[in-house]
Amino acid sequence: MYLCTSIISDVVETQNVSVIVLYPPSYPDIEGTTSGLIGEEVTLKCISNANPPPTYQWKRFNQNGVVLSRNQTLQISISEENSRVVCVAQSLMVTTLGKSKRADVAREVTIFSYVGAIIHAIDKGSNLKLIEGEDIDILCDAIGRPVPDVWWTKTGNKSFSFFGKRLIGYDIDKHFPGTYVCHAGNNITSVNKTVIETYTTKLIYVKVTESLVSRLACSSVECAGYYERDLSTDNTTNGKTDFTLDDTINPEEKDKELVLIITDVIGWTALAISIIINIWFCKVNKRNTEKLSTIKTQTEQPSEMSAYSYARSLPERPSSYITEVRLPEHTYFELNSGDMINSGQNDSFDINLTGSYPSVSSDSSYLEPIYTSSHPSN
Predict the structure, then answer these.
(1) Is the pLDDT of residue 28 over 80?
(2) Which of 68, 176, 218, 325 would bridge with 58, disulfide CB 3.0–4.6 Å?
(3) DSSP string of 37-53?
């Protein structure tokens, strides 16, 4: 507030002048609880200092999100997932002189939802069948917010305790089967700051059948102590004892390796024999195919008998006079002055038509066979 005084001709006049300073909103403060259980309601208050006093908006996710409220306070139910809300403080500064200005500032806050421990499932199911000597890896799928502690116990065996979501074992033996319990628990805080402990369990039944590999490599006394859990060291995590397996070498390993080697040798030998037999059959089939092809080719070729062969095949028939000679088809002679027309053959002979050959009872005369000739006119 300022006082303005003026004096004119001994006349004094005064006037009060007010100067108002405008300033934008300050970075907001958020009051209220920002965590709680699912379904509970929280009340948040946004406080910012500005002149003129700011207006408020609550939006989801960011300044461009959906408007949840236009009041300074916000009431919201806690959802299953964590929620982000933003308080926006706005101020319009109108000056006497100059241009008006608008200013806003925002602050984001996350509302955390606490979730009690829940076991969704055990990945191998509620019943598991194994063979002696196999490995085991069972996952207990437990969730919660904050992340729950998970540990395993075995019904009827108080000394058994395994910390972690996974129950792991190597080369399990006949002592492993039984009922295993997965435990999960965490601590959650409500809106009114009450701490609540949550806890849940799930069972899995494990059955182990005897291995086919004989356990001749160790005596019953030696094998009985195999995989006894070493509890001499108290490995505790969050109050839960973690067990380790005995480092004793499993006597069955040698037998298993020997069986695997013998099985591999037999398998590869059988495969080699099978390949050799297949190759031999292929060769035999190929040879038989070639023989059949040769016989078929020979059968399809024309079998023309030469005149000489034909004459030789005729039965001997004695006669007083030789008056005719019968030759195979396509064999032609022209008896002209006892000459044979040359039909491409180099052989030629003369036949005397005026003479005759007397018949002899004990000795017959025959015309010597000639070779097949084809008549040139054909």
Answers:
(1) yes
(2) 68
(3) ETT-EEEEEEE---BSP
Beta carbons of 184 and 140 less than 8 angstroms apart: yes
Phi, psi of 158 (to 5 degrees): -70, -25
Beta bridge pairs of residue 351: none
State the Cα–Cα distance between residues 35 and 42, nearest whole angstrom: 8
Q: Which two tokens stand for residue 62?
A: 């960011």
Place 357 in a pLDDT band, splitting at 50, 70 and 90: very low
Classify residue 320 as left (phi > 0), alpha (psi -120 to 50) or beta.
alpha
Rg, the chain, Cα only: 59
User: Which residues are within 8 A (CB) of 26 and not within 5 positions of it... i.e. 6 or more apart?
Assistant: 48, 49, 50, 89, 105
Shortest CA distance to 145 belongs to which of 184, 182, 116, 185? 116
Q: Does residue 206 carry a pLDDT above 60?
A: yes
- pTM comes to 0.47
Q: Give one DSSP letter per residue of 108-177, joined into a string.
A: EEEEEEEEEEEEEEETT-SEEEEETT--EEEEEEEEEESPPEEEEEETTEEEEEEESSEEEESS--TT--
